[in-house]
Structure formats: structure tokens, C-alpha cells
Design goal:
435 residues; alpha/beta; seven-stranded mixed beta sheet; flat
Amino acid sequence: MLYSLISGLFCLAVRLFYRCRHLGIELPIDGPVLLVANHPNGLIDPVMLMDRAHRPVRFLGKAPLFKMPVIGWLMRQLKCLPVYRSQDGQGTGGNQNTFVAVSDALNSGGVVCLFPEGISHDEPQLQPLKTGAARMAFDALFAAPEGPPIRIIPVGLRYEDKSVFRTEAIALVGHSIAIDDALMNTYADDPRGAVLDLTQRIDAAIRDVTLNLDDWAQLPALDIARQLYPAGEDVVSILNVAQAERLLAGEQPARLSSIKRQLVEFKEDTDWLGLNLLDVKTDLGGPSPLIMTLSAAGRLFGLAAVSLVGIIAYAVPYLSVRLVERVKPVDRDVVATVKLLSGMLFFMSWQVLLSFGCAWVGGLFGVFLSCLLPGFGYLALIWIERKDIYWRRCRYALLALHRPKLRSSLQARRRQLEVELGALVRQLENGSRSV
């Protein structure tokens, strides 16, 4: 009961903080599952996985977290398991009990999740994996050899801008990793070799669902390509484009440089016009530009008027979170964690104060008003998220009306880039080296 309450509250908070998207295969609704994921965003990552699993998940976390006043209590209520590390100044003997608990959880048909990198980080690529996930899988299998097979499932977590409110957060689930009879036989004769083999398979599986770059400087061009690629709304597209980039970098660096230059120039031109790349894809004709202008303007200003109530009502907790962020700087991989936890504290406390204040001033009407305020706050959230979209649609519709040749030129350039990117990815998928 308490697990469902806490996990539900945190999942709701993360869905409000980010625009969450769940892609890839569906996670099994029963049977033992060992989830393995990258770890770019502190305590947000476990919540993203809880939200995706749709059933209780037991997480592993470093032991010092369990000693923290609030976080430690939450982790115990969520039935998390401690991992003891020498770098934390602790002996590792307690890990034996953790391994037994993981084995019991898996063999009873539960879900266990760990982050094999062992750290939360802000690096552009997957960090070297620890062997714990592989060892736990083998331990569980040997503890119950007649039990159901354990499915090791990779999940790739990607955040558009993890410290920024209402940006995109994606959980991409990959295909399960099989532990075949040959690997089990190898483990019986050479446990260390089998563990290393399975760890390499886990590493490859996580890399298949994550974006691994040599440097963050590569990301802007890839994000532009993702938006222009015909399947640009799917996170798989940016993974495919990244693979194509690595292929071109080794075989045709001049062509890669040319494509990047065209992408950046196109983005700069649309930025100068105050547009988004996706806006250019809109095909407007006849009287529809005028209709779209009026529609977008109506949504922009109409929703703003209604949202003003929510903005005023919740300005204090919003500004309080911003103040905490500035007063206590933290590493980038935990900024969202600090903002989420402080936001939950401030907003819930403020809601209680608002409710009492409204009831005291307005009686029953005040109680009714306090129940409506979260709705106004949600409308304010929608307006903050979409105001730029509506404004750009107004600009593009006006561009279509007054400068149709410029609009046609932008659309032609976009189509050409889409064709080139699509050809690159198709050749990559077909295994062609004639790029």
C-alpha cells in the first residue's frame, strides 16, 4: 500500500516535470525480470523505470543513500536494496545479503533493477559496466535451476535537457538478453569468464538503446537530424542517425562535414525567422494560413488569460525552487533530483496553506476554490509548455501568407535533407558500405 502511494506520487511528479515517452517493447507483466539501464539523471532514473514497469520494482542503491534522513526512509519503503562500495568507506561484506535478496526476489517472480555503470553521471556515453548484474543473474539461476528463465532487459534513458522543466524524457526498452545453456555450462566451469561474457552482452544491449557520443559537441547536429529524419518523432531515429554518423566519420568524413554544415545552416535560418524545424514541415495552402493564424493566436492568448490564475497562485513555490537551485549548486546529473524533491515539498506545503487560507477567507466557497486551483495550475503548465509552439505557428502562417516563395524554399531544403538522411539510415540498416 505504502509502496503504491509513494511510487505513484513520484511517477506523477516526474510526468509533470518532464514530457515522458515510453518506447520500444512492452515489459513483461509477470515472471522474473532483471532491468539494466544507463544512469544519467540521479534519482529521476529509478522513477522513470517504476513508471514504465507497471508493477513493483526493487532497486539497488549505494549504501550511503540509506543513511540520509528523507531519502533513506523513502528507499526503505520502496524496498530498495543497499550496495556496499569500498569507495564509500565501507566494507563490502554486506553485499552477500544483497545478492541473496536479489536472488529471492527474482526467483519469486519479481522485478529487480540496477544501473550497471555504478554511478550517475553526465558523460556523453555509457561508462564501463560493473559485473554485478551478471553475477546476480547467474546466482539466481543456479539457486533455482528448475525455475522460470530470468529475462535481462535493457532500458535506455534519454533526456532532452534533464535540468529543464517540461523537456522530453524517453525510456526505450530493448530486447531481452538470453542466458543460453552454453553460457550456463561455461559458468559451471569458468564463473569469471562467463560473468565477463554476460557483462559484455549487457553492455552491447544497453548501447543499442542509448545514444553514445564521443563528445557532447556532436549532439546539436544529431538533434537537428532527428527532427528532420522522416521518423523523427521516434527516439530510434536519433540512434540510427548517430550510427550513420560514426560510419561516415570513418569512411567519408568530407560528406559527413557537408551534411552537418547543411543541417546547421538550415537550423540557423529557421531560428532567424523565429521558427522551429517541425513548423517548416507544415503544409499550408489556400485560406488555411489565415485560419491557422487565428487559431494559434486564440489558443496563445486565450489560454494565457486562464493560466494567469494558476501562475499567480503558484508563483511562490515555483520561485522557491528556483532559489534553491541557485543557492545550492549541484552536479548536473542531480540538478533535476534536487528540483523535483524541493518542488514536491514546496508545492504540496503551499497547497495546504492555500486550502486553509481559502477556507478561512471564503468558507465553503473558499474550499471549492482551493479544489479548483490545481486545475488552473495545470492549465498554466500547459500554456508554459505550448506558448512557443503557438507563437511559432502564428509566425509560419504569416510567412506563408506574405512570403510564399521563402516558405517554399524552406520546405524544399527540408525535403532534400530528409531524403539524404533517410538514404543514409536505410543503407546502414541494409549493411551497405557504399555510403
